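Annotators were shown the component list below and the corresponding predicted structure, then asked to write short factual statements about the assembly.
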Amino acid sequence: DAKTTQPNSMESNEEEPVHLPCNHSTISGTDYIHWYRQLPSQGPEYVIHGLTSNVNNRMASLAIAEDRKSSTLILHRATLRDAAVYYCTFSGSARQLTFGSGTQLTVLP
Amino acid sequence: EAGVAQSPRYKIIEKRQSVAFWCNPISGHATLYWYQQILGQGPKLLIQFQNNGVVDDSQLPKDRFSAERLKGVDSTLKIQPAKLEDSAVYLCASSRGMGGSGKNIQYFGAGTRLSVL
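Structure shown to annotators:
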């Protein structure tokens, strides 16, 4: 089963960087790591994905550990609109994304 | 491009009644997913279609849930009869290809919030 471990909740101040950690010790060498986020009353929204190298896009950066058993989603400057549940996931042997309970990010003004 | 459309947004029914949800994926997306999201939990995959064929329905309670994707486009998810524990948000998502390839991003609809009384 594709299991990830994330903190239940985190807080950040507005305009400060946020580092959201995720452990995925059962990941295989060909599984991509995906991050999604879910704003209140909306469906999940894709944030970023990666395999081995660190990745950047307009929303965030993804830092992947050398052994690939953990990763960190980095929001460079958190805004109030970034308050959401962030899910780290990857496709395991079932070849689908399995979502855990995620991390509830609270951004303080 | 238009996103994933779902309807209705909200539905309230009594237990033992039946209900149906509709999903229109993003145009050209071959893979369609239905998820169940119980309050406080992450989405749980119920069924995955590739075009109009079922790829995985291992977590679909087949005694009461059914889903179809006729012509490989729109999809409906039905519950008959509903139980109290079916109260949840039902999310539809689509992707260009198979979700397991690692590179296929899933796009989600806003979901249907079902309350079973």
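Statements collected:
1. Chain B has a mean pLDDT of 92.
2. Residues 29 and 84 of chain B are 33 Å apart (CA to CA).
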